[in-house]
């Protein structure tokens, strides 16, 4: 699956045939950005423009959206953490986590000046790693 931010869609490509299917995100102008495979078999993505997270079933195409508590921020990168949750970055110096089981979202403020975290990945060391675009740093987040 791929995101189409300007079109407000998630697309599924079938490599064997070259065909594709497009799924519209329910919230207008959501601005899908990061996307990752979740531990629950769904694909999870950030909705940069509307402060939400989404998940899409690769078999049915059903999209479910989740609000992010911090008002006025936007999510960027997302990854599955070694703890089985989905971790994401937010503007304003926040790292967030959502449980794929309950849909509960928790946010953690990054120490310092906020640094604008963007891309995030789970490292082979059992921790999360992300970039701080404005802080020009690579940060290890201990789980």
How much helix, percentage-wise, in residues?
under 10%
What would the principal axes of the Cα set say about the shape? globular
Number of helices: 0
Strand content: over 45%
Q: From the 3D coordinates, which CATH architecture would you assign?
A: 7 Propeller
Q: Class, according to the CATH hierarchy?
A: Mainly Beta
Number of strands: 14
Report the order of strands and helices: EEEEEEEEEEEEEE
Main sheet strand line-up: 4-5-6-7
* CATH superfamily annotation: YVTN repeat-like/Quinoprotein amine dehydrogenase
According to CATH, the fold-level topology is Methylamine Dehydrogenase, Chain H
Structural notes for this entry:
The protein has 143 residues and is mainly beta. It has a single domain, classed as YVTN repeat-like/Quinoprotein amine dehydrogenase (Methylamine Dehydrogenase, Chain H, 7 Propeller). The chain contains no helices and 14 strands. It has strands at 2-4, 9-14, 19-24, 32-37, 43-47, 52-56, 63-67, 75-80, 86-90, 94-98, 105-109, 117-122, 128-132, 137-141. The strands form four sheets. Strands 4-5-6-7 form a four-stranded antiparallel beta sheet, with no helix packed on it. A four-stranded antiparallel beta sheet has the order 8-9-10-11, with no helix packed on it. A hairpin with a 4-residue loop joins strand 2 (9-14) and strand 3. The radius of gyration is 15 Å and the shape is globular. The two termini are 28 Å apart. The mean pLDDT is 86.
């Amino acid at each position: 699956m791929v995101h189409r931010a300007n079109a407000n869609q998630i697309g599924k490509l079938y490599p064997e045939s070259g065909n594709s299917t497009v799924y519209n995100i329910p919230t207008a102008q959501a601005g899908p950005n990061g996307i990752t495979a979740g531990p629950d078999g769904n694909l999870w993505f950030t909705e940069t423009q509307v402060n939400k997270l989404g998940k899409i079933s690769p078999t049915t195409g059903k999209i479910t959206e989740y609000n992010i508590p911090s008002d006025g921020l936007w999510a960027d990168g997302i990854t599955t953490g070694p703890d089985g949750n989905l971790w994401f970055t937010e503007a304003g110096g926040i790292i967030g986590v959502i449980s794929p089981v309950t849909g509960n979202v928790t946010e953690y403020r990054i120490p310092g000046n906020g640094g604008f975290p963007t891309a995030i990945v789970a490292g082979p060391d059992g921790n999360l790693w992300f970039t701080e675009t404005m802080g020009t740093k690579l940060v290890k987040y201990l789980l």
